[in-house]
Every structure is written in C-alpha cells, then in structure tokens.
Amino acid sequence: MASQVSKLNYVDSKLGAPTSGQQTTRVLFNTIKNPTGNSLSFFKVFQGLTQGQTNLTQNKLDSSESMVIKSIWLGAFLELDNTLQQFTGIPNTSATLSIVVGNQTVVKELPIQFNSVAGESFDRLHAINGVVTNPNAPFGYSVQPTEIRLLTDIVIPPQTSFEVKVEGSNQFFLDTYVCALSGYGKIFSAGASF
C-alpha cells in the first residue's frame, strides 16, 4: 500500500495536481451491452448506461481525482427473459487485454486465458477462476469472472483519458460485458470549509 500512495503522490505532484485529496479504495466500472465483433472497448461509451452499469460519465477522472489500478475484473452475463441470468468470465480463450492511459499503452496485450480457465492462473490467489459453479447453466457450466492482479502500479492521473481494450480471435457473443478497475485513489476533498 505504501508504494501505491507514494507513486500516486509522485505522479500527482509532477502533474501539478492536488495532493491533499481524500484517500480511498476506488473501483471504476463500465458495461458494454450487445457487442459486435471480436473486440471490446471499456470506458469509451457512457450514454444510456445506468448507475448500476457505470460509475463515470466520461473516460477521465475529475481534476482533483486520481487512481492507482491494482486489479482488473472482467465478467460476462447472458440475458434470459430480460434479466441477467448467467455470470461467467470472458468466454474467449485467445483474448488479450490492453490498458491505454492518455496516449500511452501501459499494459499491452496481456493474455487473459490464464485467469479464465481452471488451474491456469497468474498467481495462487486466483487459482479458482474457471471452476464449475452451476452444471445446469445454459452452456453446461459457469466459470467465475476473470480477475487479474497487476504487479506494477498503473496510475490514472486527473483529467487524463483511459480505456481498457479486450481483443480476441473469436466474436464476443454474450449480452453484457463488465470491466471493473480496483485499487487506491484520491477523491475530491472539500477541506475544512465543509
């Protein structure tokens, strides 16, 4: 945690951003409904999404907010009878994930199949990804969502656009996909005046 705090303070001070914000655990999430093709771009489209589908209105943090990404969570839902029924990981075993912050790709083509198939995980903490949770699900099985813990601290500075791209060789066919970025952040603090 100390390295997250010091890296975030370093980046904020270099950019001239306020360093006195409220420290917090931060989660950013975004939803893509009914995708077409073999790629997903999270944190690009916000129009028409509810508060339960995203907690942002643009792909930038406020001028007094910043964040360090520690883990990436990816999930998919199958819609049956107008309700989200089945919950799985990204069902594309040849998919890669990239994170773009500003005009730099800070995570490039990270293969996600290691965290979406049972027994193949980047670390021991996520070795249960891919276990069978419901043998009666429409596809015969339901895997856990994919979670990837990052070993390096990826910083999203204030007022800097960011995007998470998932690209695969197969078409993404489920109804709804969700990406969540979790980590440490600073949010606006009004100070002693409130």
How would you explain this protein's 3D organization?
This protein has 194 residues and is mostly beta strands. The chain has one domain (2-185). Helices cover 7% and strands 41% of the residues. It contains 1 helix and 9 strands, in the order αβββββββββ. It has one helix at residues 2-15; strands at 22-33, 39-42, 66-80, 83-88, 96-101, 104-111, 146-156, 162-167, 176-187. Strands 1, 3, 4, 7 and 9 form a 5-stranded antiparallel β-sheet that branches. The two termini are 28 Å apart. Residues 126-132 and 137-142 have low confidence and may be disordered.
Set down the secondary structure blueprint.
Layout: H1 2-15, E1 22-33, E2 39-42, E3 66-80, E4 83-88, E5 96-101, E6 104-111, E7 146-156, E8 162-167, E9 176-187
Name the beta content range. Answer: 35-45%
Question: What's the total count of β strands?
Answer: 9
The percentage helix is under 10%
Secondary-structure element string: HEEEEEEEEE
* Tally of DSSP helical segments: 1
Overall residue-averaged pLDDT value: 75
Q: Uncertain regions: pLDDT < 50 for 5+ in a row? A: 126-132, 137-142
Distance between the termini: 28 Å
Tell me the major beta sheet: 5 strands, antiparallel
Number of domains: 1
| Molecular shape | globular
SSE-based structural type? mainly beta
Radius of gyration: 18 Å
Which oligomerization state do the chains in this entry correspond to?
single chain
